[in-house]
Structures are given as structure tokens and as C-alpha cells.
Amino acid sequence: MKAVAYCRYSSELQNEDSIEAQLREISRYAQINKIEVIHNYIDQERSGKNDDRPAFQQMISDAKKGLYDVIIVHKIDRFARNRYDSAIYKAQLKRLGIKILYAAQAIADSPEGRLMEGILESFAEYYSDNLATEVMKGLKTIAIRGEFTGGFPPLGYDVVDKKYAINEYEAVIVRRIFEMYGSGCSYGDIFKEMKSKGYKTKFGADFGKNSLYSILGNKKYIGIMEYNKAIPRIPGKRNGHKQKPQDQIITVKNVIPQIIDMETWNSV
């Protein structure tokens, strides 16, 4: 039998080492069962909750060309964490006469085995959904406390005892940017004044379009904490300024000291 390996990891808690571990198990399984693995399909930083996975789609496309007979994955949850996608693609593969084998899970090709496979798929989907719920719960708790969780505070703030504190020198710059833009000044006008006064970004660089855009849209300046806002980065693609739907964004008011008053904010 000619087989291919499919490996995937999805989060920052996993990395290339996770792929190596999966490949090691698959290789051992293939050797024991005298199966030739002719290719590895690998998706990095890709969720199993949907089928937007380049290597996975290429694997399905190659299956239709008859390039292999078997897919070996480490465990059921590496193939998919979505029962709908799992059922659709497994049905396609079955019609093509392609088997799916699991290196770390002994699942028989029998009615009992298929029942067990379905149960494990349900567990995988439940784990993924429950993990997302627990993460959101933790983020809400942190947001209510107004705590800083890492990265870099925006211009105008420092972090003191895990809380945002106003940096008065930087706050002057932030207020001037809002004041100028709110009164009708262009980005170009703002750039010129910032440069003439020697004002820099939080990282000591000259202001540019992106830095001004992020400042003028940052609700921390009016005391609002927002979490779970950014869409996860897809390797090789640019997200631009895209955000998650509003119902997925955690918003808590009055937990950060205000730098900008509401009248100026609304004007901007």
C-alpha cells in the first residue's frame, strides 16, 4: 500500500516539535505494518474546526488523482475537530477506496470500530468547543480586572503592577494626535508636527499611517478594555485591519485610566 501522512497543529501552545512527534509516531506505525509512506502533508497553525487548510485540501485533491491508497494520521483530532467536515471528507475518501488509519489509536475496520471512531470525533469536537469557552471565560475575568496580559502597552501608557498607568509625556502626544485629527488635519499634517517636535512612537520610530490608525481607533484611550479582537494570523496572508465579529469581542468599560475625553473621541 502507498500511504501519505497528514499532520497538523493549530495553536501557539504547539509548534514544529508537535509535527515531529506526529511524524515519528506515524513512521513507527508504518514500519510495523509494512506500509510505504510516500509523502507528508503538513498544516501549521491551522485549526481542525474547519477545512481551510492548504495541505489538507491538496491531500484530498491528490486522493482524487489516485496517488495513494491510505492516509495515516496521529489521532482522530488531527484529521478534523468538526464532525460535519469529518463525515463529508471521509465519505469522499471511502468512495475513492482510500482508508484512514490512526497511528496512536487502535480502531478496527468494523461496525464497532466505526462507532468508536464516531465517539472519539464527538469528544474531539467537544474538547475544542469547551476549550474555546474556557479561554473566553478567562479572558473576561482578566478584562474585568483591567489587567495587562502581555505584549506592549499602547503609546500613552505604562504597566505598573499589571495595571495600565498613564505615561504623562506620551499622553501629551496622544492627545495632540486626537486634537489635530478631530479638527480636520490630515495624516500628513500630523506627521509633520510629530517630526518637528521630535515625537516618536512607543518603539522610538517616526509615525506612519499604521501607527496613527491604531492610535485613533484604540478604545483604551477612553477607558475601554477589549479582548479577543484580532483575527488569528494566517501564515503567508495579511489580515489588514480585520476583526472578529462584535459578539466575540470582550468589552469592559471604565477599567483603564482615560487619556481622551468622549467629546474628542466622538469627533475623531
> What is the share of helical residues?
40-55%
Number of helices: 9
Low-confidence stretches: none
Distance between the first and last residues' Cα: 65 Å
> What is the general shape?
elongated
Strand content: 5-15%
Total strands: the figure is 8
* Overall pLDDT score: 82
- Helix and strand sequence: EHEHEHHEHEEHHHEEH
How do the strands line up in the largest sheet?
A: 2-1-3-4
Structural class: alpha/beta
Largest sheet: 4 strands, parallel
Rg result: 25 Å
Q: What is this structure's SSE topology?
A:
Layout: E1 2-8, H1 16-32, E2 36-43, H2 54-64, E3 70-73, H3 76-79, H4 83-95, E4 99-102, H5 111-145, E5 157-160, E6 163-166, H6 168-182, H7 187-196, H8 209-216, E7 225-227, E8 250-252, H9 262-267
Parallel strand pairs: 1-2, 1-3, 3-4
Antiparallel strand pairs: 5-6, 7-8
Helix pairs in contact: 6-7
